[in-house]
Amino acid sequence: MSRRQNFTTKAVPLNRRWQTPWRRRGSISKSGADRAAPPRAAWAFLAPSLAGVLLFVLFPFADTVRRSFFDPMGGSFVGLANYQSVLANSAFRLAAKNTARFIAVCLPLLLVLSLALALMVRAAKGGGRLFRTTYLVPMAVPVASIALLWQALFAQNGIANSLLSAMGSRPVDFMGTGAAFWVLIFTYLWKNSGYDMILWMAGLDGIPQSLYEAARVDGASNFQCFCHITLPGLLPTLFMTAVLSLLNTFKVFREAYLVAGSYPQTDIYLLQHLFNNWFADLDLGRLSAAAVLVAAVLLTVILLFQRVLNRGDEL
Fold it and tell me: Which of 104, 125, 152, 287 has the maximum number of C-beta atoms within 10 A of its C-beta?
């Protein structure tokens, strides 16, 4: 007897043969329409957040763009005069250079350090709860307390110089020389590494374990699994983490301002210092123009980074 089986098919009436597909299509299109149109309850929950974004973000930014084309004193239209004044200002060029240098150094260091911490915590026994809590402590410390801590560590008679003197070295003016830049970098890494570590761990949890099991069956090493499974699987997390870390670089001003004041050492004179000084002088025209320029640069960088990652996904 051959392997072919004699299958018997039931006779289906003609009306059922034609009606069933149409019924299924109708039900699918209806469910798709339900998914495409969010219910009113969803808009009701989103309405307060959308209203807050419009009221406190979009409308103020639109007003900032408008002010950048007007004279703040007379209210007359000046065109691009405020932008020309900003680009020709030596303080703006210094602050922009220091800010770009700070971002170029801090962002790669933070991404690599936080990813390494996430891998260490994930590999630790018991889920690494103690390490996870330890790395998140800096996020809960108030900014004023951080400023007092840095003053105690890096002042002329602080703890760091006391240790250097005990070892026979000369004291270092950490906040009055080029060392202030590296103190600021250390502050940023110390405060934000725990937050980025949590983001990386969320991305690691989203990678299916079956991929690692299949790779180990094929004889792949841990390094090969990391390069061919972990890193490609973390590309979406990389974009989100990099963007949030980039935005957080503009929040380090609080620590620098509390430690060094409005006019710190030139290596840590950032755009935030310049904006704060122009705001104190009520120079709203140049302040608005500089804010629009910075926002345009940030938006361009984020879009380019997203495009590069999308090309990586296609490859």
Answer: 287
